[in-house]
Design a protein that fits this description.
Layout: H1 6-10, H2 15-20, H3 25-37, H4 41-55, E1 60-63, H5 75-79, H6 98-104, E2 108-112, H7 119-132, E3 148-152, H8 164-172, H9 176-179, H10 183-186, H11 196-209, E4 215-218, H12 239-243, E5 254-257
Parallel strand pairs: 1-3, 2-3
Antiparallel strand pairs: 4-5
C-alpha cells in the first residue's frame, strides 16, 4: 500500500482538522456545481477574485453584502478570543497546538456579521495569526499572508470619504430621495450602526434629504413622584439630565418627523390603525 502523504501524517491526531473535513466530498461537489452555475455576473466576478487570492496564496480581506446565515461556530469559540477583548488582547492559542495547526491548514475564514464584532476581536486574531504561523526561516507572516478572510455583510470603509454618513446611506439606498416611499426598495436593506450616536446622525441626514416641513416631538422630562416619598436621588434627575439620556431600548427625548417618511415603532400603539411594531 502507498504511504500516506505528509499532510495526513502531520495532522493525523488533530481532531479540530478532522471536524472541519467531516463532510461528504461528493455531496458538497454537487452542491457547489448547482450553486456555481446559477451565479450572476457580479457574483461570479466576486467568486473568481476570492478564489484567485486563495489559489495564489496572496491573502486579503473581502467585505461582502449578503443575506442568510453561513452556519459554523461563533468567532469567540473558534478563535478562542478572550473576554473581555481589550486593545492588547490576543487569542488563547499557543504554537504547536491543535488550534495553531488548524490555522496553518486554513485557506479561507468566513466571518459572518463581521461589522457587529469589536475591532479588538480582529486585532486579537491578527496578532495571534502572526504569532503562531511562522514560515521556514522563523519570520513572522504578514497579516493575512496567504489567508483570505471573507467578512459578511458589507462594511463600508469610510476613511476615504469626506462625508462618511453620506457614503453609508448612498451605498445602501440608491436614489433614496426618489424612492423613500417605495416599500420594495426599502425592504431587505438595513444600516448596522455600532452606537446610538451614529444612528442619530444617519436619521438626521436622511430626514434632511426628504422634502417637507419638519415637526419636533418631545418626551416627558420629569419623573412621577405621586406615589413615592422624597428621595435625595430625585434632585439629580433634572429635566436637563433626563432629556440627554441615550441608551438602548429607550427612545430619545426629541424626535423629528416629516409627513411620509418611514419610521419603525418599538411597541404596538394602536393595531387597529396600523400603529404596530
Amino acid at each position: 500500500m502507498p504511504y500516506p502523504d505528509s499532510y495526513v501524517t502531520r495532522h493525523v491526531r488533530n481532531r479540530l482538522i478532522y471536524d472541519e473535513l467531516d463532510y461528504n466530498a461528493d455531496t458538497e461537489r454537487e452542491n457547489f456545481h448547482n450553486l456555481f452555475t446559477n451565479l450572476k455576473y457580479e457574483q461570479r466576478s466576486i467568486f473568481d477574485k476570492i478564489m484567485e487570492a486563495v489559489d495564489k496564496q496572496r491573502g486579503g480581506v473581502f467585505f461582502l453584502h449578503g443575506y442568510g446565515g453561513t452556519g459554523g461556530r461563533t468567532a469567540h469559540s473558534k478563535f478562542k478570543i478572550t473576554m473581555p477583548t481589550l486593545d492588547n488582547s490576543t487569542c488563547n492559542v499557543d504554537k504547536d497546538t491543535e488550534h495553531s495547526q488548524l490555522f496553518e491548514a486554513t485557506d479561507v475564514i468566513i466571518w459572518d456579521e463581521a461589522p457587529m464584532a469589536l475591532k479588538n476581536c480582529f486585532e486579537a486574531l491578527d496578532k495571534t495569526l502572526k504569532d503562531v504561523m511562522d514560515v521556514g526561516d522563523g519570520k513572522i507572516c504578514e497579516p493575512n499572508d496567504g489567508l483570505a478572510d471573507i467578512e459578511i455583510p458589507q462594511e463600508i470603509l469610510i476613511s476615504n470619504f469626506e462625508d462618511p454618513i453620506k457614503a453609508i446611506v448612498e451605498s445602501t439606498y440608491f436614489n433614496l430621495l426618489e424612492n423613500f416611499q417605495n416599500v420594495d426598495i426599502l425592504q431587505g436593506k438595513a444600516i448596522l450602526a455600532s452606537t446610538i450616536r451614529v444612528v442619530k446622525k444617519i436619521n438626521h441626514y436622511v430626514l434632511d434629504m426628504i422634502p417637507g416641513e419638519e415637526e419636533k416631538y418631545l418626551s416627558f422630562d420629569s419623573i412621577d413622584r405621586t406615589y413615592t416619598s422624597y428621595n435625595e436621588t430625585y434632585e439629580v434627575l433634572t429635566p436637563e439630565f433626563l432629556s440627554k439620556l441615550r441608551t438602548s431600548g429607550l427612545p430619545n427625548h426629541k424626535i423629528k418627523l416629516k409627513v411620509g417618511i418611514p419610521i419603525m415603532l418599538t411597541r404596538n400603539l394602536d393595531q387597529n390603525d396600523g400603529l404596530c411594531n
